[in-house]
Amino acid sequence: xxxxxxxxxxxxxxxxxxxxxxxxxxxxxxxxxxxxxxxxxxxxxxxxxxxxxxxxxxxxxxxxxxxxxxxxxxxxxxxxxxxxxxxxxxxxxxxxxxxxxxxxxxxxxxxxxxxxxxxxxxxxxxxxxxxxxxxxxxxxxxxxxxxxxxxxxxxxxxxxxxxxxxxxx
Length: 169
Description:
Elements: H1 3-14, H2 18-35, H3 40-44, E1 58-60, H4 65-77, E2 82-86, H5 91-104, E3 109-113, H6 120-132, E4 136-137, E5 140-141, H7 147-156, E6 161-163, E7 166-167
Parallel strand pairs: 1-2, 2-3, 3-4, 5-6
Antiparallel strand pairs: 6-7
Helix pairs in contact: 1-2, 4-5, 5-6, 6-7
């Protein structure tokens, strides 16, 4: 009955293990919503009229450009508008994959994730190619392995650069 008490209990028991804490919290809240015979969103926001819009992305793995385009088009048809694109093995292949996806979903928002697989120069070349096509990149996730490269990319871009789950400032 007291969600603040639940938060305190979870903080005490699992405060430093955020993923585990989140999983337990969602499980408990889902169980409480089931007991109340309401959807979880309604349990958490009882005065809200309709289900909230939840925006999420879908990850497109490193594949041949044609397959990446097929996946993007399939996910677009299912309502996804943001694609997290794995990149970083081969820049030319990465650019072909981006171009193929952009040809079938030009209005999509793209979030490249290199898992530290690019140099700063390669990361900036990727962004330049995306901008030349008029594509929207929401951020660049882990473009480089070294802090100096991350700083160089961040200094050159207006978008967020994400490293280890945090925005690089």
